Amino acid sequence: MDEVLDQALRAAVRKRLDYFDALVHQADDPSKSSLADTVIPQLTGAWRDLLAAHEPDERGLCRTCSARRLFGRARCTVWQAAHLRLIADERPVVRRRRFRCRPAAF
Length: 106
Ligand SMILES: [Zn+2]
What we know:
By secondary structure, the protein is mainly α. Helices cover 57% and strands 0% of the residues. The site of zinc ion has 6 residues, from loops.
């Protein structure tokens, strides 16, 4: 696929995701309910296709992500994102900063 087509594809997908986000925040409840029958199967189908493309091999390595790395074990970011969004708590991870106590300068 050439770069122009890639960009058009990415733009179309982002536009559709923006549309879904807008529906969540702006549509009334009856509209949301009627769209759920079509949107939820689209989203679950998209996730299943994506996860199938990142299915680990017999060594437990992602066939797509591991092929890009020559050294070390690449963790599949697609499965990590799926777990974060579908299973784990969706609140953003807030890393706590470690504050070191410095002696007061006098
Ligand atoms: Zn992967």
